Amino acid sequence: MALVVQKYGGSSVADANSVKRVAKRIAEAKRAGNDVVVVVSAMGDTTDELLDLAAQITPLPPQRELDILLTAGERISMSLLAMAITNLGVKAKSFTGQQAGLITDAVHGRARIVDVVPSRIRETIEKGQVAIVAGFQGVTTETNDVTTLGRGGSDTTAVALAAGLDADVCEIYTDVDGVFTADPRIVPAARKIDRLTYEEMLELAASGAKVLALRSVEYARRYGVPVHVRSSFSHAAGTLVVGTHGDRIDPNAPAPAVARAAGDGAAQKEAEMEAPIISGVAHDRSEAKITVVGVPDVPGMAARIFEVVAAAGANIDMIVQNVSAAQTGLTDISFTLPEGDGPQTMAALKSVQDELGFASLQFDDQIGKLSLVGAGMKSHPGVSAALFGALRDAGINIEMISTSEIRISVVTRADSLDEAVRAVHHAFGLDSSEGEAVVYAGTGR
């Protein structure tokens, strides 16, 4: 018997028929002899609809009240799914994040899980019942208020529960058949990846791949939780995200076999020698670029600028500082950040312009980021040349470049991003020979 945590996204439970279909899949897993815990997102676009409703009431809703509002979506899903499973003759019970023991900090809207105390979930499992948990939410012990975890929070809920329950595997069900070498909505010839390391998946998620939330992958790596990404619309083999490369895991195998193979160090080490150079191409349209023009090139100036940015609560991605002009002693500093963080960051920098002495600020929200990811690239020369050559041949101009051991990221114009992704994907031989990838519904979450 295995303990399996399954997570179903909003597109998987978009309507009553979808809920019934997911319930049937859960009942089959339970009847196969597994203990099953399910994390569920809000139905379809419910969260966005609730946000729109709040915006009609006030442009600045209190974060505490917004969290209470948004958690209603998952509560609807969890109760309907529990009803559907019970209707199939399998006992099920639903729980809010608070009832499931998901303890968070007190930051409304983007809370972080600080502890998991799943005593009621364990009791439900011991009684032979399926536990259904509302994703995306928890509770802070400071005030006992409901909190939400931010976008992709249900993925994080599922992995955190899997870690807290010492589950054999965490299955993330979405609307594509796994993790692909590129977004199949942009590159129909994208190829499904059978296996990824946590590090590769972290880079892909951080670079814009939406199939797994970044924080869920961080949590999985920290606690060694095997993650199996699959489609709720088919029974196709998915993508395994585990510690190191290996080729002896059958994604169709039962959960215990997946977990055992994920821990087979000898097999992983042997197969890692033949790991592919490039795992995939990710893209991100959600960033903007700020350029601080005419910065005095003196020690400590960059530190002061980014202290102001940090105080504004912005998350910085890429940074480029130009060489100082000898005649003027001035330089320009450009950095990218989430587009939503742009207004407050611009305002914060503007308020210290006289103090820091820079000339002006520029804001650009028409950029796109392309990232090439692969654990094998660090030991293979010529990857950068091939990437830049593919972009050159496609007539794509590069504005910024950033690298890590297993990633190269470039910033281009937003209207060139799709073409850039397709060009790079083809240049590195990632196109599938098995026909077009299937996108069953939704946006890939």
Give the topology.
Layout: E1 3-8, H1 16-31, E2 35-40, H2 46-57, H3 63-87, E3 92-95, H4 97-100, E4 102-104, E5 113-116, H5 119-126, E6 130-134, E7 137-140, E8 146-148, H6 153-165, E9 169-174, E10 195-197, H7 198-206, H8 214-223, E11 227-231, E12 239-242, H9 255-262, H10 265-272, E13 280-284, E14 287-296, H11 301-311, E15 319-321, E16 330-338, H12 342-351, H13 353-356, E17 360-364, E18 367-373, H14 383-393, E19 400-404, E20 407-413, H15 417-427
Helix pairs in contact: 1-3, 2-3, 6-8, 7-8, 14-15
Number of domains: 2
Helix content: 25-40%
Strand content: 15-25%
Q: How far apart lie the N and C ends?
A: 29 Å
Radius of gyration from the alpha-carbon trace, in angstroms = 23 Å
Structural class: alpha/beta
The low-confidence parts are 246-251, 265-275
Discrete helix count: 15
Fourth-tier CATH superfamily name of the largest domain: Acetylglutamate kinase-like
